[in-house]
Specification:
By secondary structure, the chain is of the alpha/beta class. Helices cover about 35% and strands about 25% of the residues. It has a domain at about 1-100: Formyl transferase, N-terminal domain (Rossmann fold, 3-Layer(aba) Sandwich).
């Protein structure tokens, strides 16, 4: 059984998706660790309710420590096989990348390489897609490397954009698509 660690800054909808797939035995895995940089992140409450060890690691709590090293050591201590970024708003640093090469996975709410990079997350992505009058959008599950949204793709899925698409309707479509695609990506990795 694979051991999954989650890095999340807010609600952790990707955590919900993965945890549910593990509980329903769709994935032969278990979420065993949740780390957030935000002490108010809802994902911490969700982890607590599911009896999953969870930690707040940020420079405010550990002002004189190497945060990258601290996260890496915790992931190693919990014998993590894969790390999933569930809306994690910090850049992944060198130590974690080198220790977990091709084991850190992100879901991006667009069809990369379009609409990726620094500052392109959440509704900013959907606004840009609508502003550019794209006919389709989707999501990309990819490995994480040292550059935002440039890691090797694991899986992409597309949806059509309706003529009267709104920011909310597009965001909801993509969230639903991501939930399916995240699980399929992990299945593709034989998890």
């Amino acid at each position: 059984m694979k051991r999954i660690g989650i890095l999340s800054s807010y609600n952790g909808s990707g955590f919900d998706t993965i945890n549910k797939a593990c509980e329903n035995e769709i994935l032969n895995a278990q979420v065993v660790l949740v780390i957030s940089n935000n002490s108010n992140a809802k994902v911490l409450e969700k982890a607590e309710k599911n009896n999953i060890p969870n930690f707040i690691i940020n420079s405010k709590k550990y002002p004189n420590e190497n945060i990258d090293e601290k996260i890496t050591n915790l992931m190693k201590e919990f014998k993590i096989d894969y790390i999933f970024l569930s809306g994690y708003m910090k850049k992944i640093e060198k130590n974690l990348l080198n220790t977990f090469k091709n084991k850190i996975i992100n879901s991006h709410p667009a069809l990369l390489p379009k609409f990726g990079g620094k500052g392109m997350y959440g509704s900013f992505v959907h606004k840009a897609v609508l502003r550019e009058k794209e006919s389709e959008s989707g999501c990309t599950i990819h490995f994480v490397n040292e550059n935002y949204d440039e890691g090797e793709y694991i899986l992409q899925k597309k949806i059509q954009i309706d003529e009267n698409e709104t920011l909310d309707s597009l965001e909801n479509k993509i969230k639903n698509l991501e939930a399916i695609t995240i699980v399929e990506a992990f299945l593709k990795l034989s998890v």
